[in-house]
Automatic annotation (TrEMBL):
One of its GO terms (cellular component) is cytosol. GO terms for molecular function: beta-glucosidase activity. This is Beta-glucosidase. The active site is at 180 (proton donor), 388 (nucleophile). Residues 322-342 are annotated as: Disordered. Pfam families: Glyco_hydro_1. GO terms for biological process: cellulose catabolic process. PANTHER family: GLYCOSYL HYDROLASE, LP05116P. InterPro entries: GH (IPR017853), GH_1_N_CS (IPR033132), Glyco_hydro_1 (IPR001360), Glyco_hydro_1_beta-glucosidase (IPR017736). Its EC number is 3.2.1.21. It catalyses: Hydrolysis of terminal, non-reducing beta-D-glucosyl residues with release of beta-D-glucose.
Length: 485
């Protein structure tokens, strides 16, 4: 990634921005553990998130995903709601332990049947299903065997990918291998704020390599079993890194975070090699020549059809000497352990003068435009998809039974305008998926943070589309942004 050297340069929208391209996909996204519930039904066994959320002190208020938004039982109603909102695509993830409970061996047909039924319902409603194989919920039995720091987990993932391709390949034409492997590796095995809650820098780096390998092996498995027209992808939460000042020290801090936050994945996946500066920054932690086997990099660099990009907020960094600030104010949860192995000293900052969301994340649409343009310049010819973008705010149901969320509408408008500018500036962006379709289990924050366009009353499971859902519905119908109120 190209590190942005300053966040002060103005970025002006064109006088008449180009419309969203013909065929641009308008969707919304969820993740299995966050919405499905039915944690122990039809043969499903615990994932690492079941274990983690049931461990006292790991999740706010002791919340778990046992019921979540009960999407497993209510998917027909949810698909009908998607249709009413005009969604063209639904990005969902598969619970690995629902279809292959031990992470090995044959699938449980009852688990596959849920996804078959969900996909059939989507297709009947005219909604394109987009399947993500992994959104952080590793079967606990595989974690007990060592988890992602162990090479064997990547091989098990390839087997699982083949199972899913054979089961749904005749009906699902868009596939994503991994969602945000950075979070899996560095929040799960580095800072410990995500499952499985380990705080081992070497294990985090080993996990990153094996996730890369899992992506490559799974892509090969998908290609083997899917029709030729099917598309494969990976989704990365690329950090739009900016140095706080123009100093050389802050520029090096940005380089470091770009290496371990972005290029640790884009390097091998898109360039066929790990960046040399990353290897130097982390050589005291892990033995890279021992970790990376012959043939790994070629496997990881398997061609993909689309790169998914998740963006919420910029990442502004410095050395501790160039500004006060909490060195863990990186938006990735509170921990005494860093998710940035080799660069633990780097400090993180909010964007000055910008509003913040309920997650205390700076609202800065220009960061999305800059990120898309950087990725497009560095990977010409690679189509892009914004696979997650959204915001949590303090939503409440009014006396009239409605949820008015003007802050979210403003957030979405700004970021969709940024996508529109990127398209006008030459980025091949093929679609946008709102995070999230509905309120859900927000990982370590439990049910305290609401990202959904649809409000969930967890006591009754009542669904109430927020004002932002109706606004997004208008965007889809217009294939463009409506005039500001």
């Amino acid at each position: 990634m190209t590190v942005v050297r300053s966040d002060t340069a103005p970025q002006q929208a064109p006088a008449a921005p180009a419309p969203f391209p013909t065929g641009f996909i308008w969707g919304a996204a969820t993740a299995a553990y966050q919405v499905e519930g039915a944690a122990a039904e039809n043969g499903r066994t615990p994932s690492i998130w079941d274990t983690f959320s049931h461990t006292p002190g790991k999740v706010l208020n002791g919340d778990t995903g046992d019921v979540a938004a009960d999407h497993f039982h209510r998917y027909r109603d949810d698909v009908a709601l998607m249709k009413r909102l005009g969604l063209k695509a639904y990005r969902f993830s598969v619970s690995w332990s629902r279809v292959q409970p031990t992470g090995r061996g044959p699938a449980v047909e009852r688990g596959l049947d849920f996804y078959r039924s969900l996909v059939d319902e989507l297709l009947a409603a005219g909604i394109t299903p987009v399947a993500t194989l992994y959104h952080w919920d590793l079967p606990q039995e595989l974690e007990d065997a060592g988890g992602w720091p162990e090479r064997a987990t990547a091989e098990r993932f390839a087997d699982y990918a083949a199972i899913m391709a054979r089961a749904l390949g005749d009906r699902v034409g868009m596939w994503t291998t991994l969602n945000e492997p950075w979070c899996t590796a560095f929040l799960g095995y580095g800072s410990g704020v995500h499952a499985p809650g380990r705080t081992e820098p070497a294990a985090a780096l080993r996990a990153a390599h094996h996730l890369n390998l899992a992506h490559g092996r799974a892509t090969e498995a998908l290609r083997t079993h899917l029709p030729a027209a099917a598309q494969t992808s990976v989704t990365l939460n690329l950090h739009q890194v900016r140095p706080l000042t123009g100093s050389e020290a802050d520029a090096d801090a940005a380089r470091r975070i770009d290496a371990v936050g972005n290029r640790i994945f884009t390097g091998p996946m898109l360039k066929g090699a790990y960046p040399e500066d990353l290897l130097t920054d982390t050589e005291r932690i892990v033995n890279w020549p021992e970790l990376v086997h012959d043939g790994d990099l070629a496997a990881i660099a398997a061609p993909m059809d689309v790169l998914g990009v998740n963006y919420y907020t910029p990442t502004i960094v410095s050395t501790p000497a160039s500004g006060a600030g909490d060195t863990r104010n990186d938006g990735h949860g509170s921990s005494d352990h860093s998710p940035w192995p080799g660069s633990e000293h780097v400090a993180f900052h909010l964007a000055e003068g910008k509003p913040v969301t309920a997650m205390n994340w700076s609202v800065d649409p220009n960061g999305l435009h800059a990120l898309l343009m950087d990725v497009a310049r560095e990977n010409p010819g690679l189509p892009l998809m914004v696979t997650e973008n959204g915001a949590a705010f303090e939503d409440v149901v009014d006396a009239d039974g409605q949820v008015h969320d003007p802050e979210r509408i403003a957030y979405l408008r700004g970021h969709l305008a940024a996508v529109q500018r990127a398209v006008a500036d030459g980025a091949d962006v093929r679609g946008y998926f709102l995070w999230s379709l509905m309120d859900n289990f927000e990982w370590g924050y439990g049910y305290a943070k609401r990202f959904g366009a649809v409000h969930i009353d967890y006591a009754t499971q009542r669904r109430t589309p927020k004002a932002s859902a109706h606004w997004y519905s208008e965007v889809i119908a217009r294939h463009g942004l409506p005039a500001e109120a």
